Amino acid sequence: MRYLNEEELTIASRFLFLSMAMVVIQQDMQHFQKGAFKITEHYMGLLKRMEAEAVNERRVLRSTMLHKQIKVVTLEKNDSFSSYLFLCRGREEKRNYFNPAIRKKVLTILEELMEKGQSDQYASAKT
């Protein structure tokens, strides 16, 4: 049974998956810094723009969540599924996500951030 409305669930799940995408970006940045790549400036610049975009979006989401009293709590993780508890004004909803589905959602967010990061680069290059 659903206890959170669509808007609350959308905000909380976007925050959750965006946070996961930020971890991926930070790990990728570390791999580029430690790796034996010849030319890293372009990739690092894109990753930094993606991270900045994600930080800004998550800041807005966190503010919205605070205002609407929404929280996300990790319950458990195993090889196949991850469980999260979404809380909102005394209501709670437990959601189980298939880990490959989480990966797909995070990938979608990374692609969105990459598009924004690339368009930011071209916009700043034109000015």
From TrEMBL:
Pfam families: YhjD. InterPro entries: YhjD-like. This is Uncharacterized protein.
